[in-house]
Design a protein that fits this description.
mainly alpha; 86% helix; Methane Monooxygenase Hydroxylase, Chain G, domain 1
Length: 103
């Protein structure tokens, strides 16, 4: 496994998930198109699942023994993933509020 490519995949998928959640929120707020917002959220979940899969591979490889070096890019990747996970949860709540007030 090419560690650098795996880490970059983690960053890319996490960032893509984050962008999709923001698209979903904007879609709910500006267009009141909750079906499209849900589509964006589903796409974000898929990207997040891909990112989580990479993270799981890295954790399995490390086995808690420090086999994988932790460098600034790795920390950056983990930061992206955690932010994307938090934004998914928050995005669902924000969209639900927009939907509630649209009725």
């Amino acid at each position: 496994m090419d560690l650098e490519n795996e880490v970059m995949e983690l960053i890319a998928n996490s960032g893509y998930a984050r962008s999709l959640v923001f698209q979903a929120i904007r879609c709910a707020r500006e267009e009141k198109d909750f079906a499209q917002a849900e589509t964006y959220m589903q796409q974000a979940q898929e990207a997040l699942s891909s990112a989580h899969h990479v993270q799981t591979k890295l954790i399995e490889m490390d086995e808690g023994t420090g086999k994988i070096p932790v460098h600034l890019v790795m920390v950056h990747a983990q930061d992206h993933l955690m932010n994307a996970i938090m934004l998914m949860e928050l995005g669902r709540e924000i969209i639900a509020l927009h939907q509630q007030f649209a009725h």
